[in-house]
TrEMBL record:
GO terms for molecular function: nucleic acid binding. This is Tc1-like transposase DDE domain-containing protein. It comes from Oncorhynchus tshawytscha (Chinook salmon). InterPro entries: RNaseH_sf, Tc1-like_DDE_dom, Transposase_5. Residues 61-207 form the Tc1-like transposase DDE domain.
Length: 213
């Protein structure tokens, strides 16, 4: 009888710990991110260490840029419905959406501590290096760099059009410095917060065509 008492105490202790965790913990949607290799993690850590002590004046001339795609029909799993048990298949509890997205638009934009660029709509078709140079670098980034003056830094990710030879040559000829950005690090770019705000806003609007969007 005495030998089973320690086991009973341990079981009660574990149950008490589990009950306490249930009080503190809540079910939440998991964060979603890209899969990182050891090399990716090392690159991100090196970038963080290099810039962790940068004062505000060093970040002020940095232009953070990126592209983003917005669809007419979104299903981001943020919506909730109140229903009874067994009514999950009722028509009133089903959020219908176009599985192909219902059409979409891709845009490019840039932000900095001192301002922002115009939001550029990328027409149908893939973004190539030539398009990136002719539609973005030349008419949008270059004037912004001139306005900022010495110390300007262009932040762009490592997408193929961005790092293509023709674009790298253009930046070099124009005297535009680009930050050495770590691969697979969209979460380090503050413009992602802008895209999220825009996505949430679009989600609550009724846009029937990409032109309205």
């Amino acid at each position: 009888m005495t030998s089973s008492r320690p086991q009973m105490c341990m079981c009660l202790l574990k149950r008490s710990e589990t009950d306490s965790m249930r009080v503190v913990m809540r079910a939440r949607r998991p964060q979603v991110g890209v899969e990182l290799t050891a090399q990716h993690r090392a690159g991100r850590l090196a970038f963080a260490r290099e810039h962790q002590d940068w004062p505000i004046r060093h970040w002020r001339p940095v232009l953070f840029t990126d592209e983003s795609r917005f669809t007419l029909s979104t299903c981001d799993r943020r919506d909730r419905v109140w229903r009874l048990r067994g009514e999950h298949s009722a028509a009133c509890n089903i959020l219908q959406h176009d599985r192909f997205g219902g059409g979409s638009v891709m845009v490019w934009g840039g932000i900095s501590l001192g301002g922002r660029t115009a939001l550029h709509l990328l027409a149908r078709g893939s973004l190539t290096a030539i398009r990136y140079q002719d539609e973005i670098l030349r008419p949008l980034v270059r004037p912004y760099a001139v306005a900022v003056g010495p110390g300007f830094f262009l932040m762009q990710d490592n997408a193929r059009p961005h790092v293509a030879g023709v674009c790298q040559q253009f930046l070099q000829e124009e005297g535009i410095d680009a930050m050495d950005w770590p691969a697979c690090s969209p979460d380090l770019n503050p413009i992602e917060h802008i895209w999220d705000i825009m996505s949430r806003s679009i989600h609550h609007r009724l846009s029937r065509s990409w032109r309205m969007l």
